[in-house]
Amino acid sequence: ILLLIRNPKDVATSFYHFCNGLPSLPSYETWDDFFVAFMTKRMAWGCYFEYLSKWNKYADEENIMTITYEELKEDRALGVKNIAAFLGISLSEEQLQLVVERSSFQSMKKNSQKTHGEFGNVLFRKGGVNDWRNFFSEDQNEKMDKAFEEHVGGTKLGTKLKYEVYCKA
Fold first, then answer.
1. What SUPFAM superfamilies does the annotation carry (predicted)?
2. How many domains does the chain divide into?
């Protein structure tokens, strides 16, 4: 099992745009309205912190590899190598480069109409990290940090996310 996790602040930011771009989901007039719903667990697919907390129970199992979105953005080639090794797949240098090229956000966004139809425009927005800084107020940032600590702060997944997000930012 490959478990991909992401900075909860960027998850919230991305999900805000996702909700507002998909007519079948509740939309939000303002970021502040969305933030309240996100923090009070009124989201389609549940609470991200609870999701992380539940997966944390399995994080040490040998058939689970946890990787962060931020790790993949920082060094996609290393991420692909690690994933291939975990799955027991040997890749030639040429195959590795092909996967790295095709898994870039820009490549996936460019092909999103072919691969995901109209849904591609909603699914592939920016693909960056730290976009949350353009949305969160100082108070919202503090609330998110507190919720993070309460739910997953001292856990394996929480420690991995904290390192990727706060120590490498």
1. P-loop containing nucleoside triphosphate hydrolases
2. 1
